[in-house]
Fold this protein.
Amino acid sequence: MKPEEEHGMKMVLGRDDLAAAAETAVRATGTDLERLDVRPVHKASRGFVNDTDVDLCELAVVTLLQAVAHGKPVVLLPVTTLGRHQHQTLVTCGELTLADIEGSTVGVRSWSQTTGVWVRGFLSEQYGVDLRNVDWVVYEDGHVGEHEDPAWVKRAPEGARLQTDFLEGRLDFGIMGNELPADDRIRTAIPDASDVAQQWALTKGFAPVNHVIGVTASAACAHSAALCAAYDAMRAALPPTSPVDFSPVGFDALRGPVAQAAQFALEQGVLPRPVPFDELVEGSCAALGVEPARLGG
């Protein structure tokens, strides 16, 4: 008997509703599933992709793409646990505008942070910004051990904090999502960011995806039925939203946003090679022993 079969699986999921649905479904197949309490959930990503210390893990889509690009034994279970508009996450405290961003200092937690990848993609695609003409400052490493930031990206001094540097004026702009501090001086750098984001999503046919679910290849092989049951349960718990679906589930629904994230990440030096979406589909289906149609594709 394989170790995974003896000991069941370990899971890290940030959303209680999805965790409950997955656990009930997995246990119904006769497989034990232990949920580990890791908050914020991204703190589990490094151990998952580098050491496979959990079997099922919520993680940023760019982290998953990097893991696959670097040959890590993880595959995609096509469920979105977090999707949202991103244009509003580029902020400033001063009077600067997007016209000033080339030559300005912009801080982001990590070069491979998914929010940063989306925002830099918007800057390049929609506003014609040459990303190499921006003074980028990052504060943390990415989650995948083999990744190295491009030579044109600077690392903040040891002990520096993004929020502090931003509020004290050492950064002209910052890219911050959940870590955005509360301060009345802060404003979005993209005018009418909410409307622009909505229109971008409607034009593309999808919203930016932040977090998805990864599974170790070994767990996928050992527990295919249980993981497919978890997929079904989470899909039922995530009804589509309109006019833009922020929680797409299934290969077909995830193809657009994940392929776009992969394109942006490759252009920005976040990925060492292209990661076609079909490579993710093939890897998942091979590990789970199922056809793409079983997982919505």
Q: What stands out?
A: Residues 27 and 73 are 24 Å apart (CA to CA). DSSP finds eleven helices and eleven strands in the chain. The longest strand covers residues 74-83.
